[in-house]
């Protein structure tokens, strides 16, 4: 999520920033040294020849391909579903803001509409804090009247509390006679969607890919990489460390990327930019009621970096 | 679903808890001893050489890759769809609770709203009991007035009975003049969703992956693993048992994980944490009407362990 | 769909009931004898050596893997979509029954509600009969008043006729002043869903996977299996028939399972249990209006066997 | 889509009708002769040996597997989505007809309802003509009053014009006081769906799979097939032409099927049976208002042949 | 997206226009020359033999197949989802136009309806400009009254501003008494959809496939292609450059196509034809209110070329 502009194919080969290579370099160096030792000692260690024909490795390779393919797809789907949920959060809060402006019988710059929009922004931030297990307090007090912020702060499921407040807000418009039950239902339809977004994010955060998959893949990858030098030493000689490190780069690299992608709400480099997206939602909702965001929104198409 | 915190890549290689290795260890030991015997006796048994070229194994390997890939994907999709249905159950019961609080014309702490919320909680528990074929009685009597509990207990399709009671509850609000048919329809929309959740769970529980797939895969995996030592003994000698056990770990391990994942409503280690999710739904719904759950809800992001 | 309880991994290797082996055994025996002949005659037939290097088989193997993987996935998706449509039929008829009980202004045991529910049950049975091209008459006369049964029996698209009757039933409630157009629309929403279910089932029944796929796969599988003994005889000798039969079991077995799964509304062992599901819908709808099904509904989680 | 009844596995090997073999036979014959020449001249042509080790072919084979697998899946998804859109067209026109009969305040045999149904049928036929770029005029004049047919005929987007007429029809019912805005909205919901069906079909017709994919796959397939004889001649001798043709049958056959499936609205043998489906929609809608189709509708489950 | 008509299989082999070959030709020429050097110097360079057995390449090949397969699928899904969003834009603007004509109580040629339709067209163009980061001003002033164009021009999120204007337009119809809240909700339902379309496009534009995937794939492809000549030189001699270039064409070609497809809103040859689609939406909406588009709309089924 760091480098955006299209790159020349040649320069792309030597990019360092944003590469997974940074993370796995020590492991690759170690694997390289190990391979060098295997080549150096071949046939010499205690008069026993540990090298072997590479055929058995292709059998483990089949299993590896299935594991890697599956775990990669499942993780990317989690990542992309999480992104879709936050995209849907953007769409739904925009729709609710539009409804508050044009269907509630109130003018766009009335304090009630402003409260409604700030509740939506607070909803976004509390969801972010819940998913990252950080403290929502400073955002709540920044966005909401103190008494409301305090009451929400007490709850265990803060976004759901705010959802209830949004429902009460709509109920009040109805009691004032500004809206009838048809319009109330149109609002309610979007509140249902917000409820689904919270539940969807909780589902991804609370239910990881079953742990045995991670273990099976992780162990098979490392067993494979460390058996590789023994299988290649006879046919490849001093080229062995090169091949082993290349293969190790591909497999360990994928294993490492997948571990980041798998939990998309974390704080690792390739996780979702929840901070950037929260600020973007704040900025677009405030623009709709002609207020300005308290920070400079980044230029389009390049701001989703946490 | 047991180990949550990110682990060091090195320590991950030696985790025992939550590993499928526990379950398949006896089979791997047996396969190991079998391979040792094959290597020891090669060429000696009745003057007949049972070893062979490993090429034919790659042909069976193609079939194996297709079977494993398919059954793994289909099983994981069942698991994840089941999880989505329970996530949807959470969202929909929350939405219905919000509707009961803000749209029914009753206050959040009225006994009727409390009954409605307890019906939703009872719905959740009876669905869990139906899927696991356990007895719903104790949860029904804990949550509902005795007469209602008794009447629901008699039915074969208990969640559907509760759905009908929820419909009657809404009908009563309409007869009291608190809601009109528009609001009734907004409630009804979410009751339809609950109906879809029950049916979706029943579908997964009642229609397994066609049995011949399980047999084809299971038999091909074991035939493959037990032919492997004959194919490798000539080229790999005393390294054979190591390769066979590694390959066996990968294939038998996946076969075993998939068998658990496939029926996500069971009680095996990697099945869905229906107990944890039911308690979570109880706790979040009660919080919405300012009641406390009769048990300590676990901290976020780490409680879905049955 | 026959064996449900979890089986010991060892016993699973020797299950006969529900195995596809029953269906393809004669073909495997024939393939076995053919392989024996190839091994016996190698190099002897007219002084010409028909054996060859197995490498070319791996090239055909790539094509085979793509065909099998694709056709298997496409067939299973058809099977599972058909199952989802019938699951949706269950959910929607339950929702319509709940609506008839709680939203039509009639009591649950009124004759009109009973007619409505019996129309839904008749809808289910006529859909089953249409998909299996069997005679709906006996079920229609069992469930509906004679005049109605006769009029529906005459139509070519019977489920659509019943859908129209359901629409007329709702129209009558409106004309009686029991429901307004909002409630009528809530009913109508679920009738739209029934219309989608009929169309979805017709789509799967009327549009098979394009025939050339079936031919391409079927022919490649058999060509591959019958070339295999020539490719293996040099390297594997008398082990050849064993490998050939194992590979044949895997590929021919998958080809045979897929042919059954592909047309999920048929009567083969692995097709959908439309009888069981129809009875289950009848039983759950009747329970909702406190009537008993005319047959003993099977215990949960084990009844979807036709 | 031509052969429907289940066939004996043996007879299936020799089916000619509906096979793709018809289309690619000349190419296979040419490939066969080319292979024969390669075998005949090996080592002799200008004293230079053009044969080579088949290993490099496996490297191209990896790319081929990815291309074929991808393009096949993407094409089949286009085919199946197109089929789903036409299935949805059937469902939605049936639902609109049911709504016109039971919710418009008009009787099923009134001229207005008949006009409405004929507009739906004309919608179906104009969509078919737009997708196949054929002339809609004869169907329009057959189905609609002359003035209406003429006015629609003038438009560039005919189905959208008819959609507008359907909207005007509903508006007239409202102006007559037969329906209120709730019922109008229920109709409108299904008109939105028709709009989505038109747009979905236009999307598939207007946006093919990006052309470079087709080129990459097509060229790799043919390069692969024509290199194959050089790679196999050393190890397989006079068996080479057999293997080459078999592999060519599989790869060229898939390439040819995929080209047909990819554009599902065309007129090739495996494209969608838009004529059959249009007639089926006409027949089922007319049955709902007790009119007869002007042609004999084919028996169920066997009529989708164009 | 350039060549539409079905081509003869033979001519398809020699198409140049629209081929990715144009883009990667220099890289292939370089790879070819590199391979020639490898073959020429084999065994001679400093008395050290750099050639090696090709087996290790198959191990890297497994990783390559997983990477290429995944990135290709993920990119194509992005491309196709983006296309679906623009298809949905077409459907939804058509539906809103139909609603404005038939449900707003205004006649199709009233200035208000014309304003509404022009707002929809302006919505389409501003979305295009936002996604391509181009200047919306000329289209805004062409389509909208100056004051409105100026006010929208000032906003950062222009399509959302127009969405708000559409909401205000509907509100005005309600205040005039032309529509009730039911019809307002029917409009609002489609405005929600437009909001989802904007958010969906922003999601695809702002969240690329995680960058490490691109790097891992790109580097593995080039490492693989440049190691290939060393692995093939021993067995293939002077045929090596041919094989290397063929394999390089397949892998580098796919890598290059995928890079274009991945960002579907760009201006490269295989990106979406946003200009063509915007004009098509303008033309079809104007036709619905009997106005003519200010440009000649291209003939059907061949106009989506930017």
Automatic annotation (TrEMBL), chains A, B, C, D, E:
Main location: membrane
Subcellular locations according to the entry: Cell membrane
Cellular component aspect of the GO annotation: plasma membrane
Membrane topology term: Multi-pass membrane protein
Alphabetized InterPro entries for the sequence: YneE/VCCN1/2-like (IPR044669)
Keywords: Cell membrane, Ion transport, Membrane, Transmembrane, Transmembrane helix, Transport
Entry similarity comment: Belongs to the anion channel-forming bestrophin (TC 1.A.46) family.
Protein name, UniProt field: Bestrophin
């Amino acid at each position: 999520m760091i480098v955006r502009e299209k790159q020349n194919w040649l320069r792309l080969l030597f990019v360092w920033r944003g590469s997974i290579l940074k993370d796995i370099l020590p492991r690759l160096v170690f694997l390289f040294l190990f391979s060098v030792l295997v080549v150096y000692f071949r046939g010499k260690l205690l008069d026993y020849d540990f090298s072997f024909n590479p055929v058995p490795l292709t059998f483990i390779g089949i299993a590896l391909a299935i594991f890697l393919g599956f775990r990669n797809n499942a993780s990317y789907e989690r990542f992309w579903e999480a992104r879709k949920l936050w995209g849907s959060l953007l769409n739904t809060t925009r729709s609710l803001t539009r409804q508050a402006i044009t269907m509630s019988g109130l003018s766009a710059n009335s304090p009630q509409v402003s409260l409604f929009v700030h509740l939506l922004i607070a909803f976004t931030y509390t969801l972010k804090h819940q998913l990252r297990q950080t403290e929502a307090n400073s955002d709540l007090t920044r966005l909401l009247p103190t008494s409301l912020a305090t009451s929400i702060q007490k709850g265990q499921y803060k976004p759901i509390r705010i959802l209830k407040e949004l429902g009460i807000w709509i109920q009040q418009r109805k009691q004032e006679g500004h809206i009838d039950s048809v319009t109330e239902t149109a609002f309610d339809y979007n509140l249902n969607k917000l409820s689904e977004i919270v539940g969807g994010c909780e589902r991804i955060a609370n239910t990881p890919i079953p742990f045995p998959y991670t273990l099976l893949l992780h162990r098979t990858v490392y067993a494979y990489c460390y058996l590789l030098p023994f299988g290649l030493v006879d046919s490849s000689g001093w080229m062995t460390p090169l091949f082993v490190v290349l293969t190790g780069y591909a497999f360990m690299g994928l294993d490492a990327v997948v571990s980041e992608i798998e939990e998309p709400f974390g704080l690792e480099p390739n996780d979702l930019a929840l901070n950037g997206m929260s600020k973007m939602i704040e900025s677009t909702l405030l623009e709709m009621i002609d207020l300005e965001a308290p920070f400079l929104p980044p230029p389009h198409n390049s701001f989703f970096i946490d």
